[in-house]
């Protein structure tokens, strides 16, 4: 009997399919957990980095805030070009500090939240898909049982019609025997003997008719069952095909619903935060590069001499000092 | 007397100039010291940041190294698209870690060394410029003293010639007196009286001649001294002009020699290190972005079903199971 075997095989496969979907969901939940832990830890690192940079900038800013150059800096931007570079270096560290703080903030208050949400959604979608799958499996098993039943019925009826047929054949044989005997010469037979024979022939005929009827009846039943079986067979194959090719695929799609799209959005949030940091950093470096291009001895020399006019302005020309009355 | 005053003023100015150049050098040395301290501290921060990132990546790499996905990863690159993003995130952290370590390394072994060198050079150049300045000041003071001397001489000789002239005038008056007396009538005078007068007239004439000679001599000296003074005056103004307009400017240039150029090179080293880090970081982010673009449910579904063929391959079509002899 191939059927119950195949049927059992399919049932096992359906269970296996559920296991796979469950495992997939677990792997997703695990991945999303890792992503959250990862960004939480990275946020810590960024915050610490930001704090250290801030401290560094603050330490040197405080040091220079008192100096004459800094007063100058506050007054106008006309600084000695190296001092200007120095201030821009400190500004850059400040900027980096701010940017990494922002990064950490986006991780904690946006990216991580998104992963959390996706994880919950995945679990919820899987649960729902499980209910749908259960129903689909129920229906499929019903169809398979049905198929098994109708096949059995067909086999049974077919067996019965075969046995009925053989009984009928046997009856026909006996009848022929009887007809064969009644072919003997008449003058040899006694009157009462003749009477006996006639009655037994009748009996045989009756029996033959009964078996004939029985056989036809079973034959009909078996043909009906056979057709029933053939129709169910077709229907079953259709359902199985439908499940494996459409329903199963839909089940998987259902579990995936929104997963990739949300993941995409979450990771884009991370990426744009990183790209923004990069842009800001780059702007700052360009400002410094520009200041480095403007490292200029000539203008610094000018400023230096202007800073100390008393020391560098040339004295009056010496005039002729005439002696009394001399011209 | 204006001269010694002006002279003193100039000497004070020369001293002031040295003070300014010394102060400038001290400010440069201080700035370069700050820059070294700044980069030393920033190098520490970058190293710590790099270590933390490395730890972070290592922690999650170790976690995933065991998983089935990772075996897959080792085997082929055909990963589920979200898992692929996850691995690229870890790679990016690894990359950032390496890049910040490199940054710290360049600060310590290149940038700081350069600032150190520039600081030493500035001090050395200032010392040399000081020697040159000393010589220039010596010469200038010599010229100024010279000018003072020749002016004094001129005034002295001029004074002498004036006094000689007045003495000569007086002698001429006496002579006139004598000539006036000798106009009296002759018969009143005694013979011996006439003799007396003649001798005194002679005396006066002698004195007058002597004074005449003295006067002319002094007059000549004073004119000579006056010309000497005028020439020295011109020479002095020329030297003072030369010092203030050329020598002083050269002195400042000498102190600046190579300062801006070396500073430029040092800061460019810093900038290129930062720009390199940025480029690498950007490449990494682009790789992740590409993976995010490839977050694809369809292909993942395909992979998922291939991972568990036993669960998802459709069963054989159900065939008609004929009962003995039935066709």
TrEMBL record, chains A, B:
<keyword id="KW-0175">Coiled coil</keyword>
<dbReference type="InterPro" id="IPR031160">
    <property type="entry name" value="F_BAR_dom"/>
</dbReference>
<feature type="domain" description="F-BAR">
    <location>
        <begin position="8"/>
        <end position="300"/>
    </location>
</feature>
<protein>
    <submittedName>
        <fullName>SLIT-ROBO Rho GTPase-activating protein 1</fullName>
    </submittedName>
</protein>
<dbReference type="InterPro" id="IPR001060">
    <property type="entry name" value="FCH_dom"/>
</dbReference>
<dbReference type="InterPro" id="IPR027267">
    <property type="entry name" value="AH/BAR_dom_sf"/>
</dbReference>
<dbReference type="InterPro" id="IPR051627">
    <property type="entry name" value="SLIT-ROBO_RhoGAP"/>
</dbReference>
<dbReference type="Pfam" id="PF00611">
    <property type="entry name" value="FCH"/>
</dbReference>
